[in-house]
Amino acid sequence: MSKPVVTRFAPSPTGFLHIGGARTALFNWLYARGRGGKFLLRIEDTDRERSTPEATAAILQGMEWLGLDHDGDVISQFEGAARHAEVAHQLLADGKAYKCFASQEDIATFRETAKAEGRSTLYRSPWRDADPASHPDAPYVIRIKAPQEGATVIRDQVQGDVTIRNDQLDDMILLRSDGTPVYMLAVVVDDHDMGVTHVIRGDDHLNNAARQMMIYEAMGWDVPVWAHIPLIHGPDGKKLSKRHGALGAQEYQAMGYPAAGMRNYLARLGWSHGDDEFFSDEQACDWFDLDGIGKSPARFDLKKLENLCGQHIAVSDDAALRQEIEAYLAAAALPALDDKQSRDLERAMYCLKDRARTFPELIEKAHFALASRPIEPDAKAAKALTSVSDGILGELTPQLQNASWNRDQLEATLNAFAEAQGTKFGKLAGPLRAVLAGRAVTPSVFDMMLVLGRDETVARLTDAAG
To answer: Which ranges carry the Aminoacyl-tRNA synthetase class I anticodon-binding domain (predicted)?
Structure first.
């Protein structure tokens, strides 16, 4: 019987949740959730100088925004240092590691000599097979005994079999001279102790897999399934960086992209399921598999992101959308909606969400429902207002006071009124948009009237006519 799937995301808390890290977390989350497995979170905070609580908080907030929930507590790698050291000492006791007393100067001299003689500069310690009786009373590191013949094969689910000659592997340090474990050891011990079955991570870690396999095999532990995913590039084909725009997941929240659209886009960034572009979380969990991940770097495309986000906004539940917009306003440090605005926004959502790709676009369309009287038209809308249109709108007001407030009746009333004025309704639409919304581009006049209600609609017309 196969073991339950356990994946993990293991970021270093030295900054925000990078968009590449967010995709790695998503792939791990989808793989576990689609198989009824566990998705664990480990903070690799062994670099004490660069790790900060603020960065950890930013990573957790970014994952929360993306809806990537993890199982169990967040694990701190630093707190496992004693356990990591214990494994190094076990390997030492088993003769699979050794004490190396070489100084930095000794290693530098070795490399200079090897380079001058045209030999490999990979350090070969003279202490590997030294008699313990000859050990000096001096500081030492613990090194693993790397295999020196044959080859190590990384059986990778994305890259295929990757073979590395064992004479290219050095006797990696496990424990520094101050007794602290190195990152490579900590990762393996943590993954083993956490029961991780699948390691899905960036392909910049591919070479690390060969070195980490030395520890798994020396300890007699099961090697996890490897899946090293290509990095994300910018539109120009170069590694994604600040020059391409925002890099942090939370920056995208603050720019007003919906989380569902971001998840969909990141899932498609380097992974595919036939020709499917737009899909739900449930579909992504059902479909996601490692054989759908491409070997080439994916290119980040803002237009595709916006297109998918627009599709997700259009199918979102109105109440959920309102809540996410309120979270966006907080993330962007913009003024919050009051209770009335919040209710009005949700009521108007049906006529707002079809063509908005981001929350700022949706809020701009919602201006008519969020603004309070008197409505000040912007420069473009003001051009539609003249003394003639003001007079016509003044004549319309009493007719609206007596109309039944439903779409069919409003359309009939306004069309009949336009005909009586010797014009078409289209000619009235511009001035009505200016008066009701203060904008030239808005939802339909009828939708705005229905959302605002009779009293507010008439009041805005009266203000303009006055």
So the answer is: 329-464
